[in-house]
Amino acid sequence: MEDLQLNISVAKTNKKKPGAVHKDASEYKFVSNPKFTGKTIARKRPRFIAQKGNYVKTTEEEPNKKVAKLTQPPAEKNDNLEANLRNLSENKGKFQGKNYQKLSDDIQIAQKPRSGGWISSLFKNNPDVPRIGQRAVKPIVEKVFTGKTFSDLNIHPHSVANLQQNLKLKELMTVQQNAIPVILQGRDMLIRSQTGSGKTLAYALPVVEGLQAIRPKINRHDGIRVVVVVPTRELAVQTYELFVKLVKPFTWIVPGLLSGGQKRKAEKARLRKGLSILVGTPGRINDHLRHTQSLNFAKTGCLVLDEADRLLDMGYEKDVAAIVKSIEDHKKAATYDPLALIPDEDVNEKEQIDDKEEKSEVKHHLTDILMSKERQTILLSATLTKAVENLAGITLVDPVFIDTSEGRAVVADSLKPQKVDENKIANKKEDIPLNKNKEDDNTQVGDNKNKKEKKTKDDSESEEEEGERRGGLKEFGGLNRHDLFQTTVKKENKKYESVPKDTTEESDSDSDYEYFKVQKELEEKNTAKDIKEQIDDINPQETGNKFTEAVKSAIIEDELVMPQTVNQTFLVVPMKLRLVTLCSLIVEHCVLNKKGGKMIVFMATLEMVDYHADLIETVLTGKKKKKKDQEKSKAKKRKADGKGKDEDGLESSSSEFEVDYHEPSEGGLIPVDLEMFSLHGSMQHEQRIEVFKQFREARHGVLICTDVAARGLDLPRVDLVLQYCAPASATDYVHRVGRTGRAAQVGAAVMMLLPSEAEFVRHLEQKRIRLRQADESKSLEALRSVAPAAANRARAAIALQTQLEHTAHSSAEWLARASRAYTSWVRFYSGYPREVRQWLDAKQLHLGHAAKSFALRDTPAALARRSKSDPQLKKEKPTNRLSVPDEVDKKRPGFGKVKIGFNSRVMNKQSSMHTASEFDSGLPPLEPSYKKKKN
Ligand SMILES: Nc1ncnc2c1ncn2[C@@H]1O[C@H](COP(=O)(O)OP(=O)(O)OP(=O)(O)O)[C@@H](O)[C@H]1O
C-alpha cells in the first residue's frame, strides 16, 4: 500500500481569523506522499502546525516565528486522534485503508458546532437559475369517465351490485367501456391508457365474469384458470386484493397471490389447496414452476401481463417467456379427460338442470376459452415500447389494440383492415353503443370464437346489414350488444341489486337463471329498428387501421399521455440548496397545509431513500429514529465481536442521535409533526408490504421511495408527487407522476432539476408533456416555521442545513450512510441512459456542492476515499439480477429451450441497470457466486 504522509494541520484551509479556535473537520488536511519517511511534516499554510505533538502558533507575517507555544492541544480528543493517526501510519502494514478512514470519520464526529452552528455557505457560489420559457405544447387528452354505468355492460347483476355497493364504483371509465366487451369476446388484446384510468378493473372484471359463468361451476381444485403477472410485489398485493373484492359474490372462484419475499412453504401449501386466479411477480411464479409440482397451467385460459413494458424493462423477459411457454406446454400435455365432463355426483338434480340450461347459454366467448385449450392474452401499460410491440407479436393472436387517447384510433383490430373516421368515432363513441363482431369477420377468428355473436346475428337483421356495410368493423367505441337493451334491463335488474355483503355461500343459481331468462326476453323484444337507428350515426370509411400499424405508429410517435387533472411544474434549484428545499416542500405540503397533504418523493437509489428518510425525520420531527432490524442485527454482531467495540477494536459511537432543539434562537429549530415512510426494493418483504399498506391508509405523510413505487400502485389521496432526482426516461416521468391525479382526481407534480438539468423539460415537451416552471424564490418560505427565530428564509435554511449536517456527522454510522447515499447517487447519475444524458450529464455536476446536498462536509476526494473503503457499498456495477443467468437457464428443465422471441436488445439496458437494484424477486441466490477459501 502506498505510504501515507499525514500532515495534520490544525488550521483551516480557507480563510479564517487569526487565532480562531479550530473545530471543523475540514481544518485537517491529509496529504498522500509516496516518499513517506515516517516524519510528520508541518505545512506552511496553516497557522497551527503540528510538531511532534506540540502545537505552535505562527503568524501570517512571520510564518517561521514561533509566537506562542500552546501547552495544551486544542482538544484532548483531537490529540488522541492525532496520536492514533500517527500510530496508524507507523503500523501501516497492520491496518487497511478503512482504519484511516475510521479515524478521519472520528475526527469529523468529534467536532462540535459552535453555539450558533456552523456558518454555512449555502447561498454562495451557486449558479444562476435559468428561466426556461414554456413552449406551446398541446398535450394529448384522454377522457376518463364515460357517463355509462356498469349495468350497461353485459355482466352478471351480482357483479354490478358488488361494484356499486362494496367498491362504490358506478360510472364506467373509458378504458373499461372499450376493453370489457372485447375481453369478454375472448380476443387477445393490447391496452394502452393513461395512468390511473382503471386498467386493472378493465381486465379483472371480465375475467371474473368469464369464470363465474363456467358451468359446472369451477372449484379451486380444477386448476388455475387465469394468470396475472405484474412487475412488483406491492402491485401484486394490490391486484390480488381487487380480485378478492370482485369475487365476493362468486365464492367458488379463489384468487391467490405469489409474490417474492414470502415463505415458499406457505405459498406451496396455498398452491396445493388450489387457486382459480393466480396473481404474482414473474420471478416468483417461475420459481414455483421449477420447484412446486402442484403449480400447473393445464387449465389456464387467460394470461394477463400488466405493466408489460416494465416487465421487459426489468429483465423479466426470460421469466415471462418461461411462463408463456409453461402455459403452452402444460395445456398441450394435458390429456383429454372425458370424465371431467360428467357432473359431480353430489351436485343436486336442480343444479344440474340449471347448469345444463346455462351451458347452452354461454354468454361470453371468454367463458368458452377458459374451458378449452385455447388461451387469451392481455397486455397492458400506460406507455408502450418497442419491446412490448415485439412481445405482442409473439404472444398475441388476432389481437385488438385499444388506445383511449383522443384523436388516436380507439380500437385497431388485427383481423380486417379498416379505415375509420377517427374524429367521428371519437366523438360518437361516448354516445352510441355499437354491436360488435360481425359474422363475416368472425370467421377469421376461428369457429369457436363468437357463438354469442352468431346468436346476435340471428336476432337482428339490421345488425348484419350494418356489419356488412362496415366490412366487419371492430369498433368498440361503445358498449357491447347488451347495451342496446340497457334501459329495460336496468329496470328489471333492480331486484338483483343487493348482494350479500359477506357472502359465504355460493351464489344461488336460481336467481342467475331467472336473470338470464329475463335478459333473453328483453333481447327478443328489442327491435331491429332501434338498433339501426343507433348505428346509422356512424359511418366509418373503409380500410386501414390494423393492429400492427396502430401500435407501430403509437410507438414511433412516442407521445405520452398525462392525466389532465395533474398540475405539472418543475423547480430549478442549485445543488447546495436541494436538501433544504426538499425539507421546505415537505413542511409546506404535509405540515403547514391545514388539510394535511400526502406526498411521494422519488429518489434515485435505495441508499438515498434510507438516508434521507431517516435524516429528514430525525431533524424535522426530533424523533429518535430506530431502525429496528438493523439495530437488532448490529447489536448481535457487537455482542459477538466484543461489547461496545467495532471490528477495528475502536469504540463504536452510538447510532442513535437525538436532535438537540434549542430554544428558538437564530439557529434553533422547532420540531414538526410529520409522518415519514420509506420504500425500496431491498427492504424486507414484510416491512415493505407493511409500509405500502400503512401509507395507503394514511391520511397524510411523506413516502420517500425509489421507482419501485412508480408503477401501478394506487395510493389514495396522494396529492403531490415530487421527483427529487430526475427520472431516467420520459416514460418513468409519466409513471411517477401517475401516482397522483388518479381516476380524475386533482393532483400536483413537481420535478426538481439542477440548473444544468433545466433543459430536460424540452425532452418532455417533445413527448407532448407540458410543464410550467415554478418560482424557486418561494420554495424555502416554509422553513421559517421550522426556524421561527431566523431573520429571513435564507437564515432559516442555513439553520436547517446546519442541523442536517450536524446530524449527518453525529456518528460513524450516520456518516457512513451519508457517504453511501452520496456515492450511490453519483454512480446512478453517471449511468443515465444515452437518450437523456445530454441534459443529465455527470460532467456538469459540482461534486463539492453535491456533497453539501447530502449534508456532508467532506471534499469529493475524501468521499471517494470513504466509498472505496466502505465494505457495505457494493463495488460491482449494478447488474440485472432479476434475470437468470444463461448457464442456469440451461440447467432448468425445458427452460433453456425457450426461444426469447422478443429482442432483449431492444430493451434499454441502462434503464434496467437503474432499476435492477430496486427490485427483488425474492428468489434465493441460484448458486453461490464464490466459495470462501478456508485458510
Ligand atoms: N369505474 C370506476 N369509477 C371510479 N373509480 C374507478 C373506476 N375504475 C377504477 N377506479 C379507480 O381508479 C383508480 C385507478 O385504477 P387502476 O389502478 O386500475 O389504474 P391503472 O390504469 O391501472 O393505473 P396505472 O397505469 O398507474 O397502473 C383506482 O383507485 C380504482 O379503484
UniProtKB/TrEMBL annotation:
Region (Disordered) residue spans: 422-512, 626-664, 863-896, 909-935
InterPro entries attached to this UniProt entry: DEAD/DEAH_box_helicase_dom (IPR011545), Helicase_ATP-bd (IPR014001), Helicase_C-like (IPR001650), RNA-helicase_DEAD-box_CS (IPR000629), SPB4-like_CTE (IPR025313)
Domain free text: The Q motif is unique to and characteristic of the DEAD box family of RNA helicases and controls ATP binding and hydrolysis.
Organism field: Manduca sexta
Known EC number: 3.6.4.13
Keywords carried by this UniProt record: ATP-binding, Helicase, Hydrolase, Nucleotide-binding, RNA-binding
Biased composition (Basic and acidic residues): 422-441, 480-504, 867-879
Annotated Helicase C-terminal domain residues: 585-784
Protein name: ATP-dependent RNA helicase
A UniProt-annotated Pfam family: Helicase_C
Keyword Nucleotide-binding listed: yes
Record field: catalytic activity: ATP + H2O = ADP + phosphate + H(+)
Function recorded in the entry: RNA helicase.
GO MF entry, a single one: hydrolase activity
Family the UniProt entry places it in: Belongs to the DEAD box helicase family.
Sequence ranges assigned to domain Helicase ATP-binding in this UniProt record: 180-402
Highest taxon listed in the record's lineage: Eukaryota
